[in-house]
Amino acid sequence: DGGITQSPKYLFRKEGQNVTLSCEQNLNHDAMYWYRQDPGQGLRLIYYSQIVNDFQKGDIAEGYSVSREKKESFPLTVTSAQKNPTAFYLCASSIARSGTDTQYFGPGTRLTVL
Amino acid sequence: DQQVKQNSPSLSVQEGRISILNCDYTNSMFDYFLWYKKYPAEGPTFLISISSIKDKNEDGRFTVFLNKSAKHLSLHIVPSQPGDSAVYFCAASDKNYGGSQGNLIFGKGTKLSVKP
Protein backbone atom coordinates (compact mmCIF):
# COMPACT_ATOMS: atom_id res chain seq x y z
CA ASP A 1 0.00 0.00 0.00
CA GLY A 2 1.47 3.33 -1.03
CA GLY A 3 1.05 6.25 1.27
CA ILE A 4 2.36 8.58 3.92
CA THR A 5 2.72 7.50 7.52
CA GLN A 6 3.21 9.69 10.55
CA SER A 7 4.01 8.49 14.00
CA PRO A 8 3.00 8.66 16.70
CA LYS A 9 -0.65 9.68 16.38
CA TYR A 10 -0.58 11.45 19.75
CA LEU A 11 2.49 12.83 21.47
CA PHE A 12 2.93 14.48 24.82
CA ARG A 13 5.96 16.52 25.75
CA LYS A 14 7.09 18.37 28.80
CA GLU A 15 7.86 22.01 28.39
CA GLY A 16 11.54 22.56 27.56
CA GLN A 17 12.03 19.23 25.78
CA ASN A 18 12.74 18.67 22.11
CA VAL A 19 10.59 16.12 20.29
CA THR A 20 10.85 14.57 16.83
CA LEU A 21 7.86 13.72 14.67
CA SER A 22 8.26 11.02 12.07
CA CYS A 23 7.08 11.17 8.45
CA GLU A 24 7.67 8.40 5.94
CA GLN A 25 6.37 8.00 2.39
CA ASN A 26 6.67 5.16 -0.10
CA LEU A 27 5.17 7.06 -3.03
CA ASN A 28 8.59 7.82 -4.50
CA HIS A 29 7.78 11.53 -4.23
CA ASP A 30 10.64 14.00 -4.42
CA ALA A 31 8.98 16.81 -2.47
CA MET A 32 7.89 16.69 1.16
CA TYR A 33 6.29 19.26 3.45
CA TRP A 34 5.44 19.92 7.08
CA TYR A 35 2.38 21.91 8.08
CA ARG A 36 0.85 22.89 11.35
CA GLN A 37 -2.87 23.29 11.97
CA ASP A 38 -4.35 25.20 14.89
CA PRO A 39 -8.06 25.26 15.79
CA GLY A 40 -10.08 27.37 13.36
CA GLN A 41 -7.04 27.96 11.20
CA GLY A 42 -5.83 26.80 7.85
CA LEU A 43 -2.64 24.85 7.37
CA ARG A 44 0.57 26.81 7.70
CA LEU A 45 3.80 25.69 6.10
CA ILE A 46 6.73 25.01 8.45
CA TYR A 47 9.39 23.50 6.18
CA TYR A 48 9.59 21.92 2.78
CA SER A 49 12.08 19.84 0.88
CA GLN A 50 12.33 19.53 -2.86
CA ILE A 51 14.99 16.86 -2.91
CA VAL A 52 17.21 14.81 -0.63
CA ASN A 53 19.67 16.84 1.45
CA ASP A 54 17.85 20.06 0.65
CA PHE A 55 15.16 21.86 2.61
CA GLN A 56 13.80 25.37 2.93
CA LYS A 57 11.97 27.34 5.60
CA GLY A 58 8.28 27.91 5.19
CA ASP A 59 6.18 30.65 6.75
CA ILE A 60 6.57 29.60 10.39
CA ALA A 61 9.92 27.81 10.69
CA GLU A 62 11.08 29.39 13.95
CA GLY A 63 11.52 26.79 16.69
CA TYR A 64 11.52 23.86 14.25
CA SER A 65 14.21 21.89 12.44
CA VAL A 66 14.15 19.18 9.78
CA SER A 67 16.42 16.80 7.93
CA ARG A 68 16.11 15.01 4.63
CA GLU A 69 18.77 12.31 4.53
CA LYS A 70 16.58 9.85 2.65
CA LYS A 71 14.00 10.41 -0.06
CA GLU A 72 11.28 8.63 1.89
CA SER A 73 11.81 10.29 5.26
CA PHE A 74 11.37 13.88 6.46
CA PRO A 75 11.41 14.08 10.28
CA LEU A 76 10.45 17.29 12.06
CA THR A 77 11.96 18.30 15.39
CA VAL A 78 9.97 20.66 17.57
CA THR A 79 12.52 22.38 19.75
CA SER A 80 12.12 24.04 23.12
CA ALA A 81 12.45 27.37 21.29
CA GLN A 82 9.00 26.92 19.74
CA LYS A 83 6.75 29.11 21.89
CA ASN A 84 3.40 27.47 21.12
CA PRO A 85 4.15 23.90 20.07
CA THR A 86 0.76 22.37 20.94
CA ALA A 87 -0.88 21.76 17.55
CA PHE A 88 -1.82 19.19 14.94
CA TYR A 89 1.15 18.50 12.65
CA LEU A 90 0.69 17.29 9.10
CA CYS A 91 3.23 15.92 6.69
CA ALA A 92 2.62 15.90 2.94
CA SER A 93 4.42 14.88 -0.22
CA SER A 94 4.13 15.53 -3.93
CA ILE A 95 5.81 14.15 -7.03
CA ALA A 96 7.77 17.37 -7.44
CA ARG A 97 7.40 21.01 -6.52
CA SER A 98 6.29 22.39 -9.82
CA GLY A 99 3.24 24.32 -8.66
CA THR A 100 0.79 21.93 -10.25
CA ASP A 101 1.58 18.76 -8.35
CA THR A 102 -1.02 17.69 -5.86
CA GLN A 103 0.14 17.29 -2.29
CA TYR A 104 -0.99 14.21 -0.42
CA PHE A 105 -1.18 14.23 3.34
CA GLY A 106 -0.42 11.82 6.13
CA PRO A 107 -2.81 11.19 9.05
CA GLY A 108 -1.17 13.76 11.31
CA THR A 109 0.37 13.87 14.78
CA ARG A 110 -1.26 15.76 17.61
CA LEU A 111 1.41 17.21 19.88
CA THR A 112 0.47 18.41 23.33
CA VAL A 113 2.95 20.20 25.55
CA LEU A 114 2.25 19.74 29.23
CA ASP B 1 -2.94 39.35 5.15
CA GLN B 2 -4.84 36.28 4.00
CA GLN B 3 -4.29 35.46 0.37
CA VAL B 4 -6.90 32.69 0.35
CA LYS B 5 -10.17 33.36 2.12
CA GLN B 6 -13.06 31.12 2.98
CA ASN B 7 -15.51 33.56 4.48
CA SER B 8 -18.06 31.03 5.67
CA PRO B 9 -16.81 29.10 8.69
CA SER B 10 -19.75 26.71 8.46
CA LEU B 11 -22.50 25.54 6.13
CA SER B 12 -25.47 23.31 6.81
CA VAL B 13 -27.28 21.48 3.99
CA GLN B 14 -30.03 18.90 3.74
CA GLU B 15 -29.12 15.48 2.35
CA GLY B 16 -29.73 15.29 -1.40
CA ARG B 17 -29.42 19.03 -1.93
CA ILE B 18 -26.50 20.94 -3.38
CA SER B 19 -23.62 22.16 -1.20
CA ILE B 20 -21.73 25.21 -2.46
CA LEU B 21 -18.48 26.12 -0.76
CA ASN B 22 -16.81 29.37 -1.71
CA CYS B 23 -13.25 30.59 -1.78
CA ASP B 24 -11.74 33.95 -2.72
CA TYR B 25 -8.12 34.78 -3.38
CA THR B 26 -6.17 37.98 -3.72
CA ASN B 27 -2.97 36.95 -5.52
CA SER B 28 -3.53 37.12 -9.27
CA MET B 29 -0.42 34.97 -9.77
CA PHE B 30 -2.12 31.90 -8.35
CA ASP B 31 -2.65 29.45 -11.17
CA TYR B 32 -3.55 26.15 -9.56
CA PHE B 33 -6.29 25.55 -7.04
CA LEU B 34 -7.22 22.55 -4.95
CA TRP B 35 -9.94 21.45 -2.58
CA TYR B 36 -9.25 19.16 0.34
CA LYS B 37 -11.66 17.45 2.71
CA LYS B 38 -10.68 16.89 6.31
CA TYR B 39 -12.20 14.86 9.10
CA PRO B 40 -11.25 15.63 12.72
CA ALA B 41 -7.85 14.28 13.80
CA GLU B 42 -7.07 13.08 10.26
CA GLY B 43 -4.97 14.42 7.41
CA PRO B 44 -6.66 16.31 4.57
CA THR B 45 -7.78 14.22 1.61
CA PHE B 46 -7.38 15.63 -1.87
CA LEU B 47 -10.73 16.08 -3.62
CA ILE B 48 -10.37 17.99 -6.84
CA SER B 49 -8.18 20.60 -8.49
CA ILE B 50 -8.35 23.11 -11.29
CA SER B 51 -5.77 24.89 -13.35
CA SER B 52 -6.19 28.55 -14.21
CA ILE B 53 -6.54 27.70 -17.88
CA LYS B 54 -9.90 26.11 -17.13
CA ASP B 55 -13.08 27.45 -15.62
CA LYS B 56 -14.64 24.15 -14.60
CA ASN B 57 -13.54 20.70 -13.55
CA GLU B 58 -15.87 17.88 -12.66
CA ASP B 59 -15.31 14.60 -10.85
CA GLY B 60 -18.41 12.63 -9.99
CA ARG B 61 -20.49 14.57 -7.46
CA PHE B 62 -17.81 17.26 -7.14
CA THR B 63 -17.42 20.22 -9.48
CA VAL B 64 -15.06 23.14 -9.05
CA PHE B 65 -15.71 26.42 -10.81
CA LEU B 66 -13.08 29.11 -11.27
CA ASN B 67 -13.84 32.76 -12.03
CA LYS B 68 -10.46 34.38 -12.61
CA SER B 69 -11.77 37.88 -13.13
CA ALA B 70 -13.50 37.74 -9.75
CA LYS B 71 -10.65 35.77 -8.13
CA HIS B 72 -13.24 33.34 -6.89
CA LEU B 73 -13.68 29.61 -6.92
CA SER B 74 -16.41 27.38 -5.64
CA LEU B 75 -16.90 23.70 -4.94
CA HIS B 76 -20.29 22.19 -5.70
CA ILE B 77 -21.30 18.88 -4.21
CA VAL B 78 -24.45 17.36 -5.60
CA PRO B 79 -26.23 15.47 -4.25
CA SER B 80 -24.87 16.05 -0.76
CA GLN B 81 -24.57 13.03 1.52
CA PRO B 82 -24.13 12.79 5.30
CA GLY B 83 -20.66 11.32 4.72
CA ASP B 84 -19.67 14.61 3.11
CA SER B 85 -19.81 16.27 6.53
CA ALA B 86 -16.26 17.50 7.13
CA VAL B 87 -14.12 20.62 6.95
CA TYR B 88 -13.29 21.67 3.39
CA PHE B 89 -10.10 23.60 2.68
CA CYS B 90 -9.41 25.62 -0.42
CA ALA B 91 -5.74 25.93 -1.41
CA ALA B 92 -3.84 27.79 -4.10
CA SER B 93 -0.35 27.73 -5.53
CA ASP B 94 1.73 29.80 -7.88
CA LYS B 95 4.34 28.34 -10.18
CA ASN B 96 6.43 31.46 -9.89
CA TYR B 97 5.78 32.63 -6.35
CA GLY B 98 9.08 34.20 -5.39
CA GLY B 99 10.98 30.94 -5.43
CA SER B 100 8.37 29.19 -3.34
CA GLN B 101 6.68 27.64 -6.31
CA GLY B 102 4.69 24.60 -5.39
CA ASN B 103 3.89 25.80 -1.89
CA LEU B 104 0.21 25.75 -1.10
CA ILE B 105 -1.60 28.62 0.59
CA PHE B 106 -4.62 27.38 2.50
CA GLY B 107 -7.86 29.03 3.52
CA LYS B 108 -9.15 28.56 7.06
CA GLY B 109 -11.73 26.02 6.00
CA THR B 110 -15.51 25.69 5.93
CA LYS B 111 -17.23 23.09 8.09
CA LEU B 112 -19.96 21.39 6.09
CA SER B 113 -22.76 19.57 7.88
CA VAL B 114 -25.10 17.47 5.77
CA LYS B 115 -28.26 16.56 7.66
CA PRO B 116 -30.21 13.37 6.90
Give your account of this protein's structure.
Helices cover 0% and strands 49% of the residues of chain A. Chain A has 114 residues and is an all-beta fold. In chain A, strands 2, 4, 5, 6, 9, 10 and 11 form a seven-stranded mixed sheet that branches. Chain B is mainly beta. Chain B is 0% helix and 52% strand. In chain B, the strands form two sheets. In chain B, strands 2, 4, 5, 9, 10 and 11 form a six-stranded mixed sheet that branches. In chain B, strands 1-3-8-7-6 form a five-stranded antiparallel sheet, with no helix packed on it. Chains A and B meet through strand 5, strand 9 and strand 10 of A and strand 4, strand 5 and strand 9 of B.
What is the percentage of strand-forming residues of chain A? over 45%
Mean pLDDT across all amino acids of chain B: 91
Distance between the termini of chain A: 35 Å
Quaternary structure state of the chains depicted: heterodimer
Mean pLDDT of chain A: 91
Summarize the structure.
By secondary structure, chain A is mainly beta. Chain A is built from no helices and eleven strands. In chain A, a hairpin with a 5-residue loop joins strand 4 and strand 5.
